[in-house]
Amino acid sequence: MSMLAPLFFAGALTIAAPILFHLIRQHPKGSVPFSSVMFLREVPSRLTRRSRLDQWPLLLIRSLALILLAAAFARPFLRSSADLLNQTPARRIALVIDRSASMQREDLWQQAVAKAESVIEDLSANDQFAIFVFDSEVKKEWESNNTLLDEGQRQLAMETLRATQLSWKATDLGVALREAADWAQWPETSINSETEDAPASTNSALSSPTSSSSNRSGPGPASLVLISDLQNGAAIDALQQNAWPEQVTLDIRRVAPREPGNATAVVMNDPARDNIRTGQKDAEFQLPIRVINSKLASQFDLSLTWDPEDEPQNIQVESDSVRVVRATPPAQNGSEITPPIVLSGDNSPFDNTVYWVAPEKRTFQLLHVGRETDEPRESLSYYLRRVPLDNATREVTIETVDPSGLPPDVDPKQCPLLVISQVSGDAAFQSALQQYTNDGGRLLFVMDDAKSANELLSVISALTSSKNLTVEEAKVSDYAMWSEIDFSSPVFAAMSDPQFNDFSKIQFWNYRSVNGLTTQAETNEIDWNVLASFDSGDPALARSGNVWLLTSGWQPSQSQLALSTKFLPLIAQLFTGNEPITGSSVGHTIGTPLPWPPSAGSRLIRSDGETTAYEDSLDAEFIDRPGVHQLRLPDETMISFASNLAETESQTDPMEEDTLERLGIPLGEAPDSETLTEATQQLRDRELESQQRLWQWLLLAAIILLAVETLWGGRYAKRIA
To answer: The whole model's pTM is what?
Structure first.
């Protein structure tokens, strides 16, 4: 027999009271003279060696009543042999470990491994367990199988944990917690099975399908154990998408460096980089660098070093402050790699090296095929020259050539776009355009007047193998507008935002109505995609492969397009969308896709000299560390690019735990196996006691004994009276 509250049984000690009452003899105190007994002979009282108990049955009844009352308050119950077995419910624990770049600080990873090992060591045989590691992505590294969790599985989990490597990627905490929480939920089949089998057996129905004899217990607590530095830069947006599972709690076990605070340097984008040329050093050019110091920083005297031969640039940045400084890039000699920018003086050097590649500026050409007009403002090229196509990596010259003077071998790599408003009937002209489009060049035919429209359409039909194309001057009573625009097209994607997608203020005075520009869905012979239409339904901008057609001019006599804010991004995207890949790039972040599409024959060359093919987007995972890397294209073009950490990884100040709690995540410490076993046993004891209710019978017996004692004591008192 066991007791739910054994301390109450100490009340049984009160049985000493009736025994003492029986043993205590009451002697008269003092003497009173009485006349009637003065003639009697005084006999001295006899003393016995020991006191004797009188009415021992009455004493026994009283003692038993007290014992029964004490036992009733102790709430006893009976256990069977099955109840003595371990009935600890199975826990479902997801161990979520942060391996992002911020965990490279000091000994954070060693702390994380130690905390994770303590979780694994505490696992019981019935537990279901999985290890998730995350940075910008989440990966399930290990999961227990359906059998009992034995020592062998624990060792496999330990080995998997110790083999995990840190990464240099950013921290997406929200995605990791969301995926781990989905796993941590008990499957509905397990919960339903436990509910159905509960009346028949106290054991759980969670036994292995392959081992019916395994003594698994029912579904217990579901917990996420998060081991992370929980830095402020971690992304948590994914936690706002769906409700958190109610039965899953989050146990945060934070790791922290000995010295808090961190400073970092970030290279800023600056139009002044247009002055840079490969192999040159412009003494007047200085690259802006943003230096950020965290709130918990204790070091304020920092220094920047770029060229190892130069003196460090000393700067002072207070905590929670930002300072922009300018540094002169070191000269580059040929293919020599620019030295990295090194920040020193703070407590966390993991992010203090910033790599940068001077953009290689290339010269491109945009040709307008047509004739100049007497009035410059009525020429297409007049407005083309005012489109700012130059940037840090390119310089674009815009020229107008007569159709008869078009070179037969225009190189699309040097001239990505031809704007054609007039054509030549010469077969060599059409052959040159055909070769240009076959090599990847982009043609934009502009019907800016009715006279040349038929000639343009004739050349377009020949280039696209389109049949039954006809053109006529559209009838415009007042003005026309663009009404249907395909913002999914890259040409209009930059203007898809609601504050930029209003084209209703652009009025067209004249345009040409082209018939036969049907899409491939309507006919299998012609492959035209109409990207913009007039309010009359006539095509305004259409595309077939590398051939584009604009059915109206942009000069003021034709429309207001050139005077609108939509003209610059439209022409820039038509040019940039076909721009050849440049020889350098700045600003790639580790863990993000490369800005160049994969292709057969391309190879990635990492900063450590290792190489791999770049024929699939997943191959970009090969660039997994900061440094200056290279991409070799199939035509042997070499592209140098710098990869750095995400800026958010440098935001190492700790995140407050209530930030997660405000998102509806219940926080709580995951119970260890010993505590859970004790709690489960106590709960089972309460269930047994509440089912058996022995205390009621004990209390009834005590009442009966007290009633008997009362009757017996009353009769005894009358008799001695």
So the answer is: 0.66
